[in-house]
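Budget justification aside, the reviewers requested a transparent look at the raw inputs and outputs of the sequence design task funded under Objective 1. We therefore reproduce one unedited record. The lines immediately below are the structure tokens for a 455-residue chain.
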């Protein structure tokens, strides 16, 4: 493949490493597909296409985790050739990660969590008899089978996983060409008349009727799968589907604004607070222009990103707040429309007491996960939001998070503008669950949503 292209630095963001690389069907360093990948002989948990790639990854990342992976391998339990239950496999995984106190090394956690194992008997390769190897499903490249088990898995599941393989290729291609892992596509020209997003039934309807991809109406299906044979058009549609994982943020916000502001179609200005903003929100910033493009009366959009993950270079105390104006398209600029962005590093309940705080029209916390992690940090903010003077949108990828969150809100006496339900504007690119309830479980960004009512 394209060996002349610069090798992406997979060390900078572990979450942006292709899943296929963890499954050892891509070179862990340059992310090329190769039929003769060779493994790190010490840990056997990463594969490379060449000595050069191996050396590069060793210096960049692998030397930090190889020894730890070897230690994990030594902890393997005996498993009967008849296999075991998913729960037993999962427990062993959790134990491995817990025992080694490696919680801080995300890449290591992912290498273990996404490790290849037999789909039917849940044995990893080191647990097979006589050095037997796992075979990979030739369609999805993500499911593996030991030689003693059936060599198939359900076709619907395989089809879903094939999207991950497609998306991995898109991501690698993007990183090579642009240095970024995400692609952003939104409505090219601002709409002249307001058409409520709530009138669209799904992403397909949004793209072909509200946005400007009407020309693709007959060329893709409702799942945004391309239906014809032109390779350039196919690639474009695949990028569009992949891009929904970024613009899910903006469309979900527009849907929430429509649900909470009765006169949204005539509003000239909107003030948004994004709580707990992190990587996903920041990389989607250019797509905030979609709010201007779908809401024609809007001329001034003010967005404040507040949270502990607001990056160090944006760090501020209560004395100052960083602010900048987002460059809009020429049409919007000519019309005098603007998007102003401010950032403040710290917990939201503390931001409320600063001189910068202005009651927003809507606050939003995407994938806060407040019921399962960082409870100490989120606790006071959630308590505040239960009785805040504005509505707050929440999203989560998995149902058990929603269940946990509902329990918390109930105790705080919160009420809802919108009860928890599946979000029409969830991202359409699946990712393999790191700790699923069953093998090959996938999640979608912003799958669930609800809106807490203002007081
Ligand atoms: Zn390579
Ligand atoms: Zn190694
Ligand atoms: Zn098996
Ligand atoms: Zn498959
Ligand atoms: Zn514009």
């Amino acid at each position: 493949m394209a060996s002349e292209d610069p090798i992406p630095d997979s060390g900078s963001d572990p979450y942006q490493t292709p899943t296929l690389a963890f499954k050892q069907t891509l070179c862990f360093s340059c992310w090329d597909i190769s039929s003769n990948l060779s493994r790190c002989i010490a840990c056997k948990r990463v594969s490379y296409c060449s000595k050069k790639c191996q050396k590069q990854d060793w210096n960049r990342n692998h030397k930090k985790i190889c020894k730890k992976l070897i230690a994990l391998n030594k902890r393997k339990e005996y498993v009967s050739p008849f296999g075991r239950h998913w729960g037993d496999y999962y427990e062993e995984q959790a134990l491995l990660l817990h025992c080694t106190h490696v919680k801080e090394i995300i890449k290591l956690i992912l290498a273990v969590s996404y490790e290849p194992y037999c789909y039917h008997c849940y044995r990893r390769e080191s647990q097979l008899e006589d050095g037997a190897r796992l075979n990979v499903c030739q369609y999805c490249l993500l499911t593996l089978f030991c030689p003693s088990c059936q060599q198939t898995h359900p076709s619907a599941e395989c089809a879903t996983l094939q999207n991950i393989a497609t998306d991995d290729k898109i991501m690698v291609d993007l990183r090579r060409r642009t240095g970024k892992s995400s692609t952003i596509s939104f409505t090219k020209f601002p709409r002249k008349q307001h058409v409520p997003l709530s009138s669209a039934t799904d992403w397909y309807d949004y793209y072909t009727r509200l946005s400007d991809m009407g020309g693709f109406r007959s060329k893709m299906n409702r799942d945004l799968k391309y239906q014809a044979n032109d390779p350039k058009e196919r690639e474009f549609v695949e990028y569009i589907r992949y891009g929904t994982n970024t613009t899910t943020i903006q469309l979900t916000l527009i849907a929430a604004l429509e649900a909470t502001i009765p006169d949204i179609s005539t509003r000239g200005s909107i003030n948004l607070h994004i709580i707990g903003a992190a990587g996903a929100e920041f990389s989607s910033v250019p797509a905030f222009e979609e709010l201007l493009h779908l809401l024609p009366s809007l001329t001034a959009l003010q967005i404040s990103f507040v949270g502990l993950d607001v990056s160090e270079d944006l760090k501020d105390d209560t004395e100052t707040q960083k602010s900048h104006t987002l460059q809009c398209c020429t049409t919007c600029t000519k019309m005098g429309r603007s998007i102003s962005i401010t950032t403040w590093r710290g917990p939201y309940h503390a931001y409320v007491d600063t001189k910068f705080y202005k009651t927003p029209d809507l606050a939003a916390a995407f994938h806060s996960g407040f019921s399962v992690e960082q409870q100490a940090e989120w606790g006071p903010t959630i308590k505040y939001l239960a009785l805040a003077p504005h509505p707050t949108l929440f999203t989560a990828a998995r149902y058990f998070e929603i269940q946990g969150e509902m329990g918390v809100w109930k105790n705080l006496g919160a009420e809802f503008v919108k009860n928890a339900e599946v979000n029409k504007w969830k991202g359409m690119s699946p990712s393999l669950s790191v700790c699923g309830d069953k093998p090959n479980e996938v999640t979608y960004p912003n799958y669930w949503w609800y809106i807490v009512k203002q007081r």
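The pocket of zinc ion (ligand 1) is lined by residues 27, 29-30, 32, 48-50, 53 (CB under 6 Å). The two ends are 58 Å apart (CA to CA). Computational costs for records of this kind are itemized in the attached budget.
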